[in-house]
Automatic annotation (TrEMBL):
SUPFAM superfamilies: Immunoglobulin (SSF48726), MHC antigen-recognition domain (SSF54452). Pfam families: C1-set, MHC_II_alpha. Residues 105-186 form the Ig-like domain. The lineage of its organism: Eukaryota, Metazoa, Chordata, Craniata, Vertebrata. The gene is LOC102203056. It comes from Pundamilia nyererei. This is RLA class II histocompatibility antigen, DP alpha-1 chain-like.
């Protein structure tokens, strides 16, 4: 993807008080193939348009009361995408001489959302940041085999330095010995980045029985100290002819 093939609009709104400062963000991005419209608050994605399923999505956890953007939010997103592509077409001539910018991801991490318990549902997270342009492609494997069930990825989220962050997730059930990997592909990479996660048996602290070893050493130390003190007293008194 060349630089001219991607157009991204960012709208930041800052509001605050004496105690807090919040950042509200509205992202509209497009190419001739892909597109994304997203609303966020304080680096949390609140809403985005899924143009493949033709619906709006609230990605917050179920225990968080979502902020509604209204029934017409998806239709507005479609209009934003159309306008973005129109502007992209007009800007092609002006940007044709610009060299493409390609920043490879500066950080890729894989971790679990919750503490691992064997045979208990969990989520693997592949966190990719520091890349430009967006998006990245993330794929998953389990024991060397490609797996797609229960996988998802959020829209690219802009960083303050002009790069992007994306988070991919995979629902899984940990089983002892399983090996998972997330593979990241991007225009700035000469080869894919791969991060591995091994499912190990959770360690259970052993209950140790009381040991006599330290007590014996302490007892011997006290006895030797007393004997040494007694011997020293004897020789001091003898030197003074007290005995």
């Amino acid at each position: 993807m060349k630089m001219k093939d991607l157009l991204l609009f960012l709208s930041y709104v800052l509001w605050g008080s004496a105690d807090a400062l919040h950042t509200d963000i509205h992202v509209v991005g497009c190419s001739y193939i892909h597109g994304g419209v997203m609303f966020g608050l304080d680096r949390e994605e609140l809403w985005y348009a899924d143009f493949e399923k033709q619906m709006d999505v609230y990605p917050q956890p179920p225990f968080v009361q979502p902020i509604s953007f209204g029934d017409g939010a998806y239709k507005i997103a479609v209009a934003n995408l159309y306008g973005c592509r129109q502007f992209l077409q007009l800007s092609e001539t002006a940007m044709k001489d610009f060299p493409p910018r390609r920043d490879a991801p500066s950080g890729v991490m894989i971790y679990t959302r919750n503490e691992v318990e064997l045979r208990a549902k969990n989520t693997l997270v592949c966190h990719v940041t520091g890349f430009y342009p967006a998006p990245v492609k993330v794929s998953w494997t389990k024991n060397g085999q490609i797996t797609t069930g229960g996988s998802s990825i959020n829209n690219p989220y802009p960083n303050k330095n002009g790069t992007f962050t994306q988070i991919a997730r995979l629902q899984f059930i940990p089983q002892q010995g399983d090996v998972y990997s997330c593979t990241v592909e991007h225009l700035g990479l000469t080869k894919p980045l791969i991060k591995i996660y091994n499912v190990d048996t959770p360690e259970t602290p052993e209950k140790h029985k009381p040991s006599l070893g330290p007590a014996v050493f302490c007892g011997l130390g006290v006895i030797i100290g007393v004997l040494c003190a007694a011997g020293g007293t004897f020789f001091i008194l003898k030197a003074n002819k007290c005995i």
